[in-house]
Amino acid sequence: xxxxxxxxxxxxxxxxxxxxxxxxxxxxxxxxxxxxxxxxxxxxxxxxxxxxxxxxxxxxxxxxxxxxxxxxxxxxxxxxxxxxxxxxxxxxxxxxxxxxxxxxxxxxxxxxxxxxxxxxxxxxxxxxxxxxxxxxxxxxxxxxxxxxxxxxxxxxxxxxxxxxxxxxxxxxxxxxxxxxxxxxxxxxxxxxxxxxxxxxxxxxxxxxxxxxxxxxxxxxxxxxxxxxxxxxxxxxxxxxxxxxxxxxxxxxxxxxxxxxxxxxxxxxxxxxxxxxxxxxxxxxxxxx
Length: 288
Description:
Elements lengths: L2 H14 L4 H18 L1 H13 L6 H13 L1 H6 L2 H5 L2 E4 L1 H9 L4 E4 L6 H9 L4 E5 L8 H8 L4 E5 L2 H12 L3 E4 L10 E6 L2 E6 L1 H9 L3 E8 L6 E7 L8 H16 L27
Parallel strand pairs: 1-9, 2-5, 2-8, 3-4, 3-5
Antiparallel strand pairs: 6-7, 8-9
Helix pairs in contact: 2-3, 2-4, 10-11
């Protein structure tokens, strides 16, 4: 992507950000169906993933929700932060606050569910947050995405050893960090663990940070409300047993993500290639 096209995209996002959220969601609903019908590979992965998870009954709604998730980004990233946060209704913050009160830090985990981009802003409105961030593959998009995500009290930590050090330092200072535990990690950064009954390469970082810092784990997701009425940002305590091995820990976190997704299955990004094999990683069957 050229610098010119990147600049045009930034301008388009800023222009779209002035539209009311209900309008953006209406456009997204239509575009979600357009992409679903026009792309066989997208459609096949979408259906395979939602069927494997046992949520086929939510397929039609999920198609529209996927489109809404794309077209709400200009609003979430580029609109005035105060305007964005007025659309967020926070529930269960007391679980996060109780964890922060321990002074051991706080590990917030959110899957690709609902409007996960707004969860970081909602947290940063209440406390300092350092969020793990993987730069986009296209360097021209970096200014747009990093500039949009870098809000007051919200700090980005690159998905690298330096970023891990930033996260650990934040935890040791009693601060909050945020991770997407269902994001496929790079070689050496994960283990194979079942996700909806199929092995998925799963990050081990969240459990390692918990072991190194003693920071409590809290789950968070933002359910997209109907008719563009905004979002319900919900904090849920992690009640699983992590276990002793990386495999056990990854399985426990995946199980927690499955339970969270079941709260609003139509809003998970089922098109995400969760089961891909990262370069250099042996497939599960090759390890037996």
